[in-house]
Design brief:
Chain lengths: ~240, ~220
């Protein structure tokens, strides 16, 4: 579904991605982890073309992301993305947040879009908040709305960039539960996270990045059993001790 | 010396006409100025050097010109070019609009930049185009943030409309002057004019302050 081949990316003269290659098959869940500044966000933003890259190729469902001829808006409409800081639109109600792209991009009618929004809100347990503004919700609730907003587009894959790291600890689980459910339903997911519990539960593979490189790309059991690189071992022992 | 404020009541309809013209000019120039200013701000932020330069040149040019000179161009010079008079009202309206756009565009640019890049990314990520992201996500938030500043600039514009006497338009200030001279009641009329400007502009600023308080929350 997602093929990433030999991606190099520079910000000005600093190289932030070096020959990164990995893939996410249909229905697969791949967790990306690594120290701060290792390029995780940058890599995941390259997948839906939010960040341009200089070398290499990324295809999503066969569509080359880096090609000039590719209609990026059209492609992005089929890939859901969830951000660390939720990025709900503060001037719109929860329902309007979920309906905007459905109406403007997919051309659904207001009634269709609202019905879809209502269904998804009940699924993430937020039906009674439909008419509120994001500012009136807790972080965990906002992030669940953001997931609903992405799902409303009936995406073929979902990208998550540290979806729980801006949350108070007691709200992390309510978001992870929604993500676990999605994974178990067979959604194709690429998830940047340090929640190793989540990785253990639903990941198929774990990708470990350091200094712009993909250092390890292994089946979950192999990764948690015996990570091959020292850097991954150090990283794992650090974050596992933290938890 | 006896004051006679009765003269104000006798000439109220005449004065009201002047006030209406001041308001009309303010509203039309503010509306036109904001539309033009949004275009200028988007050009400035577009990332295309040529567009950004044109926009910057426009802004710097109009900010360096006295407003009255711009009005005179349209009143005296443009008719020479197009072969027919522009007329006082349109000269003033066009000049005010072009002039205000230069000031508004800087305000709007700051407003657009006050909306986080994450919001833009969120819009793009759901498949919205640049135009849709601006229209539905960025500009509404930007305008919300900058409404107080835009209104403050609008108050300045309202005061500036008193300049239009130079092209023989009868705004509120001009109407006041005419009555004052004809009736020989300079003191009464100019006190009255000050009171009217004060009430309008001060209540405008109070409203702006209330909005700022509301938005700060
Ligand atoms: N817009 C930018 N301009 C210049 N450098 C950037 C920019 N964005 C990120 N970087 C740099 O690129 C590198 C990778 O950043 P990135 O945000 O992808 O890391 P990350 O792995 O997501 O880190 P974190 O865990 O802190 O989110 C960092 O060194 C960062 O300083
Ligand atoms: Mg990051």
């Amino acid at each position: 579904m997602i093929e990433i081949r030999d991606i190099d990316k520079w910000y000005g003269t600093t190289q932030v991605l070096r020959a990164c290659s990995t893939s996410v098959a249909k229905g697969e869940v791949v967790v990306v982890c690594g120290p701060s500044g290792s390029g995780k966000s940058t890599l995941i933003k390259c997948v839906n073309g939010l960040e341009p890259f200089q070398n290499g190729e990324i295809t999503v469902d066969g569509v080359p992301v880096g090609d000039r001829g590719t209609n990026l808006s059209k492609l992005r409409a089929r890939i859901g993305m969830v951000f660390q800081n939720f990025e709900l639109y503060p001037h719109m109600t929860v329902t309007a947040n979920i309906c905007l792209a459905q109406e403007k991009v997919l051309g659904r009618s207001k009634a269709e879009a609202e019905a879809k929004a209502a269904g998804l809100l009940s699924r993430v347990g937020l039906s009674e908040h439909a008419r509120k503004h994001p500012g009136q919700l807790s972080g965990g609730q906002q992030q669940r709305v953001a997931i609903a907003r992405a799902l409303a587009m009936d995406p073929i894959a979902m990208l998550f960039d540290e979806p729980t790291s801006a949350l108070d600890p007691e709200m992390i689980n309510e978001v992870l539960e929604v993500m676990v459910e999605l994974a178990q339903e067979g959604m194709t997911m690429m998830v940047v996270t340090h929640e190793m519990g989540f990785a253990r539960k639903v990941a198929d593979r774990v990708v470990f990045m350091d200094k712009g490189e993909i250092v390890e790309d292994a089946e979950k059991d192999a990764f948690f059993g015996t990570p091959r690189s020292d850097r991954a071992q150090q990283f794992l022992s650090k974050i596992l001790h933290h938890i | 010396m006896a004051f006679d404020f009765g003269v104000i009541f006798d000439s109220l309809p005449f004065l009201a006409e002047g006030l209406a013209l001041s308001f009309l000019l303010t509203l039309l120039a503010a509306a036109g100025g904001i539309v033009l200013a949004v275009i200028l701000a988007l050009m400035r932020l577009s990332g295309y050097t040529a567009l950004a330069l044109i926009s910057a040149a426009y802004v710097n040019f109009f900010r360096s010109m006295p407003l009255i000179l711009v009005i005179f161009w349209f009143f005296f010079l443009v008719p020479l070019l197009i072969g027919r008079p522009v007329g006082g009202f349109y000269s003033a309206l066009i000049a005010f609009t072009l002039f205000e756009a230069a000031y508004y565009s800087e305000i709007i640019r700051a407003g657009i930049q006050s909306v986080s890049r994450g919001q833009v990314a969120a819009g793009y990520a759901t498949g919205l185009t640049y135009g849709q992201t601006m229209r539905f996500i960025v500009l509404p938030q930007a305008f919300r943030n900058m409404t107080p500043v835009l209104l403050t600039q609008g108050i300045v514009l309202f005061q500036d409309t008193s300049l239009v006497f130079v092209v023989a338009l009868r705004d509120f200030m001009t109407a006041t002057t005419i009555v004052a001279r004809n009736e020989g009641r300079l003191i009464e009329m100019y006190l009255f004019a000050a009171a009217v400007y004060f009430v309008i502009c001060f209540s405008g600023s109070l409203y702006v302050r209330r909005l700022q308080g509301k938005f700060a929350r």
